[in-house]
Design goal:
382 residues; mainly alpha; globular; single chain; transmembrane
Length: 382
């Protein structure tokens, strides 16, 4: 393992592999124009190609110097900030073109927009996630626009005000419980996360002495942006375009929540009593060092460090060895595939969760309440 100096991090050759995510844009147009097999090129690219590249390129255990100054990260910022215009232009064109394309039947149109949903979910939402964690207002706005394009705007509030504060506790709906299959988890987060985000914003407004309907409540912005996206889809593609837009949004949300499921499955923070939990540590998120998928997902798999240092930009996220953070056996594409088959998932992951418990919490003998999310709520949780 080596540490890259700030000068090495700033070199274009260090940043260029992360631009592989932009390979999805020409594939979307190729699918629309050529039809046939090409309508499924996007999931093949994002899921299968990068899983094979992981097998060839192996693990990347090198770290960038965390002291790299902001002015050395210009190319990385360009990468994240340019994604929304690229995705938005692609989505708008597809909504206009695909419903009227004579060479695309219903199956081809659905196949193509399934791939568009894979792109907006697998690529667009990690970009939104990165942007929402940054301080500049323009970056947070771009993150909001990406979320609105898949009708999942509440994710901003839920992620920043709930998930990062309460991860690994019963207050965080996104922390998948031990033995909880993905399908049950998915129904739970679709039900609980919007109201969790609303409760967090309501509590924030109350602390400022403001009513829930105050204009500073971000749910006004979320609603306006999502309505604008729906109206645009209807304007560009008619009712067929609106249906295709809703379909891609559903696929994108499914992709996001598959990733959320993988990132924290079975990992809980120790309850200290009196509504207190231990501080978040790298061991409370699954880490994955698979090189190619980290290029595609802008280091999202270095999730252990992201939760430990949430304001750290993606090129500076650190890798952790097995004695500091639990390790996934494969990259996210293969892990999310396994998550769709709960018996396979439990066979792969439950022994790893039990090993994690023995390593980090050998003194805890009764995990029943942790497994069921029945330990007390954190003190002060809305």
């Amino acid at each position: 393992m080596t540490t890259l100096s700030p000068q090495e991090v700033a070199r274009p050759r260090a940043a260029l592999p992360f631009f592989l995510s932009y390979g999805t844009i020409p594939l979307a147009f190729l699918g629309a124009f050529a039809g046939g097999f090409w309508v499924i090129a996007l999931p093949v690219y994002c899921w299968y190609l990068f899983s094979m590249l992981d097998a060839v390129t192996g693990l990347n255990l090198d770290d960038a110097s965390p002291d790299t100054p902001e002015d050395h990260l210009g190319l990385y910022r360009l990468l994240t900030m340019a994604w929304f215009p690229a995705q938005f232009a692609t989505l708008c064109f597809m909504l206009w073109y695909v419903p009227q394309a004579p060479h695309l039947d219903l199956g081809a149109r659905l196949g193509l927009f399934f791939g568009i949903g894979v792109m907006t979910g697998t690529i667009g939402l990690p970009y939104a996630h990165e942007l929402l964690h940054q301080s500049p207002r323009i970056e947070r706005w771009l993150g909001d626009l990406l979320l609105a394009s898949v009708l999942y705007s509440h994710f901003r509030s839920e992620h920043l005000r709930v998930h990062h504060i309460y991860v690994g506790t019963p207050r965080d709906a996104v922390t998948a419980r031990y033995n909880e299959g993905f399908h049950r988890y998915y129904a739970r987060v679709l039900r609980d996360c919007p109201r969790s985000a609303w409760a967090a914003e309501k509590a924030m407004l109350a602390r400022r002495g403001r009513p829930v309907w105050h204009l500073s409540n971000p749910f006004w912005r979320y609603g306006a942006l999502q309505l604008a996206m729906l109206a645009l889809a209807l304007l560009l593609g008619g009712w067929a375009g609106l249906g295709l837009f809703l379909f891609q949004a559903g696929v994108a949300v499914w992709q996001l929540e598959l990733t959320n499921y993988v990132e924290h499955y079975g990992l809980t923070r120790r309850y200290l009593g009196d509504g207190r939990y231990e501080h978040v540590q790298p061991r409370h998120s699954w880490n994955a060092a698979h090189r190619a998928t980290n290029w595609l997902l802008i280091n999202l798999q270095r999730h252990s460090d992201h939760h430990y240092k949430p304001d750290r930009r993606f090129p500076l996220l650190q890798n952790y060895p097995a004695d500091e953070a639990p390790q996934l056996p494969f990259g996210y594409p293969m892990m999310t595939f396994a998550a769709m088959i709960p018996p396979l998932w439990r066979r792969v992951m439950n022994p790893r969760v039990r090993a994690w418990r023995k390593t980090f919490y050998p003194d805890i003998t009764d995990w029943h309440d942790y497994n069921k999310g029945r330990t007390p709520l954190p003190h002060g949780a809305p």
